[in-house]
Amino acid sequence: MTVTDQGYARPEMLVDTEWLATHLHDSNLRIVDCDNRDAYRRAHLPEAVTFRGHHYLKEDEGALHIMGPEKFAATMGALGIGDETLVIAYDGFSGLYATRLWWALNYYGHTQVKVLNGGWDKWLAEGRPITNVVPRPPQAHFTPQVREEWIARWDYVLDSIGRADRVLLDVRSDEEWTGANARGTKRGGRIPGAVHLEWLNYVDARTKEFKPAAELRAMFAQHGVTPDREVITY
Fold this sequence. Notes:
Number of strands: 7
Number of helices: 8
Radius of gyration: 18 Å
Distance between the termini: 30 Å
CATH class of the largest domain: Alpha Beta
CATH architecture of the largest domain: 3-Layer(aba) Sandwich
CATH superfamily of the largest domain: Rhodanese-like domain
Strand order of the largest sheet: 1-4-3-2
Order of helices and strands: EHEHHEHEHHEHEHE
């Protein structure tokens, strides 16, 4: 079943392994492996590149916020990602890191990006080609254009607590939600009023593909995450 058959509101945000297999060598396409560099060195998709630094493309000091526009532009340019490049992101972690790159690119105004549905796991299970050859894409020019609507600042989140028209969705692990695992932060726990649905619930445990839209909608509705409410995730 393809992404267009799943009932998603925006199927263009994803791409199937079958489509990518036929477009691997497109000149205006850049495939980005978002796993750690050791995994990338062992094997990756043909033509795939990877980046150095933090998995979430955060700033070096403190690793709290996304890296600034100049550094992000330099990072993308070094990967051969220019203003007109179509980016396909994938990983072997059920989309955890690939979706972060998807968000980061959109935050900096680059909407030509898709996530490989099923990622590395599905590609490998289907017996599709892999390699350990590292491509050397030419330097590209990336123009960052910050889109503030793609991020919720602390004051906006604070104002959202208790509002009926907004919902705070905590997608972290169960241990982080309860405060049992503070993940190195000063205080463990959650934002008051938030609902919890760990991110792993959004993908099929076997195929690593995103679950069909109807199943996702029903799951979200059970937690009060409905289309009439603005959703703020963390």
